[in-house]
Amino acid sequence: MSIAFLFPGQGAQHVGMGRKLAEQFPRARELYAHASDVLGFDLAKVCAEGPKERLDATVVSQPAIYVTSIASLELVQAVAPDLIDKCALTAGLSLGEYTALTFSGALSFEEGLKLVKYRGEVMQAAADATPSGMASILLIEAPQVESICEQASHAGLVKAANYLCPGNTAVSGVNAGVDRAVEMAEAAGAKVVRLAVAGAFHTDVMRPADQQMSALLQQTAFGQMRLPVISNVDATAHVTAEDFRELLVRQIVSPVRWEHSVRAMMDAGVDEFHEVGPGRVLAGLLKRINRKLPCRVWNDSE
Question: Which helix (H) or strand (E) holds 158?
């Protein structure tokens, strides 16, 4: 049996998350308190009480999910500490890759928080500069979505940005391009869900956020990794933390290859998954990739 831990990305946040963790585990309270000092506002209160509009803001949701996911590891440690030692691989969806890197030892909690805070700020700024958005295209497969994006791009930039699972690909781009892609996808029989995000993540709309992150990553101290992390960019396991100075920059403007990442873990022998952090999005995606593989969810809502 081989175990992998999965960490959620933006969109997993919900009002009330982390409340029980902070009440139950002293270390979780310490994490929220330290994060509040760094961020300049009471993160635990925003997570627990909202308002939803504030929690959903990119500059808040990214550190909120990161800290709550790290805090959720306290629950794993309390209930099944052997799982942490047995974990062979880890990965995170977009933002969740920073949590995976912290879990692996590549980043300290403090360094990860600093990166995530800045990432939220520069991505929000890039989104504010260009009206843009994202939509999930359901019920048709990725090659057809790519073809639709290519045809729709005459209206404006639009690309496949998240390869999540069979029949679920998110497109991202300027509003006119996304609108045209949505029209074409619906005409082709797809179901479309507009995503409540600030802008066109994982496309060139996010420039210059990538280079701004590069400057900070060059100053970041990376540690020794105790287990490999699957990169969103290339769906490949990396055992050298230094690799992520470049990969985390590329991730901001490159598609998230989540389905490919999960299949890479399966090919490596993983047959048991654990989603650690708010929500259960990744467990749902795993069922669409391979419904036979178990995925236990660890958060204070379960």
Answer: strand 158-165
Average pLDDT, integer, range 186-202:
95
Which pLDDT value is given to residue 302?
Answer: 57
Do 92 and 7 form a contact (C-beta atoms < 8 A)?
yes
Could you tell me which residues come within 8 angstroms of residue 12 by beta carbon, excluding any fewer than 6 positions away?
65, 277, 278, 279, 281
Q: Alpha helices, DSSP H only, in the chain?
A: 19-24, 26-39, 43-49, 52-56, 58-79, 81-86, 96-104, 109-129, 142-152, 175-187, 209-218, 243-253, 258-267, 281-289
Q: Which of 14, 202, 238, 274 is catalytic?
A: 202
**Amino acid letter at 197?**
V
- Name the residue type at position 173: G
202 is catalytic: yes
Which of 94, 172, 254, 261 is catalytic? The answer is 94
Minimal CA–CA distance to 15: which of 64, 63, 73? 64
End-to-end CA distance of the chain: 24
Cis peptide, bond prior to residue 208, ω within 30 of zero: yes
Distance CA 172, CA 204 (A): 10
Residue 22: pLDDT over 60: yes
Strand partners, 193: 136
Assessment of whether the complete model's pTM goes beyond 0.90: yes
